[in-house]
Amino acid sequence: MINKTTSLFSILICICILTVNRSFAGNSMNTEITNKLQKAKELYNHREDCEILKSAIEEYKNILKQLSQSEEVRNKRSAEILIELSKCYFKLAEYHAKNNYEKGLWFEIGEKYGREAISLDPNNIGGYYWMVQNIGEHGSISKLYFLNRKGDFEEALKKAKMLDNHIKPYDYSGVYRTLTAYYTPRFMWGDLDTALEYAKEMEDSPRYLINLSVLADVYWKIDKEKAKKYAKYVMNADLSKFPETKFENSIVQKNTAKKWKKLLE
Fold it and tell me: How far is it, in rounded angstroms, from Cα 66 to Cα 122?
């Protein structure tokens, strides 16, 4: 009887030790992943440097390989990493590509990661949003590519709009910014009334100057003075006020100056 009791006690002790070890290993892994995520985000914050942005991408890819939690948690965390990768490839293509071939390649990879994120977590706006950004900008260099994905683009944009947080809009009102730009009339395409409707919902803020640039474009169709006001604001904005968007704002400011200089004379 004593031997049986001793054996049972030993088994229970072993089970407890294994449970503690697994818990410790899990906590240790979570801490490691958290630290790596922080490192990847810090690298992304220096996205003006192409090589540092590529390093952020490698960090996110490595984190993706390490995730080993329950299926539901793993899917949601994996989706978040895939969204970051989709965003990183968009920035890489938009701001660092040397030619249209490279742009198209990186936009396509960004689109792929967005689609994968949606498949793992269909309730996360990020997958839809960054897939849309990659398809849209890819379409600016290849009309045929966009036409083949126009349905996917519009459906994902519709879903992103539905999931958007109207109190704190995603990516500085990115969904409404995209909708406004998409429907602004050009080359026998667009709907001015729809574009203006979405423009009213867009954040009118210098925190992200592309918003004001898009507003300048749409208002040029009906109110040139108002459009010029937005363009001037972009050109004269103090970029140091919003360091988190300084990189993108600096590019928009330069492009706006080139585009609007003669119109403002």
Answer: 22
The answer to whether the pTM exceeds 0.85 is yes
Can you spell out the DSSP letters for 71-118? Answer: HHHHHHHHHHHHHHHHHHHHHHHHHH-SSHHHHHHHHHHHHHHHHHHH
For the stretch 69-120, pLDDT in tens is 656 678 899 999 999 999 999 999 999 999 999 999 999 999 999 999 999 9
Tens of pLDDT, residue by residue over 49-63, are 999 999 999 999 999
The residue type found at 9 is F
Residue of 187 and 8 predicted with greater confidence: 187
Report the C-alpha gap between 263 and 211 in whole angstroms.
19
CA-nearest of 248, 262, 182, 251 to 214 is: 182
What number of CA atoms fall less than 13 Å from residue 202's CA on the CB side?
Answer: 28
Query: Interhelix angle for 125-141 vs 71-96, to 10°?
Result: 30
> Distance between CA 230 and CA 180 in Å, rounded?
15
- pLDDT at residue 70 in the model: 59
The answer to whether the CB of 183 falls within 8 A of the CB of 155 is no
Length of the chain as a residue count:
265
Distance CA 105, CA 128 (A): 19
Give SS3 for 184.
Answer: coil
Please tell me whether residue 185 adopts helix, strand or coil conformation: coil
- In the numeric block, the tokens 């990493």 are attached to 81
Q: What is the pLDDT of residue 72?
A: 64
CA 32/CA 46 separation, integer angstroms: 22
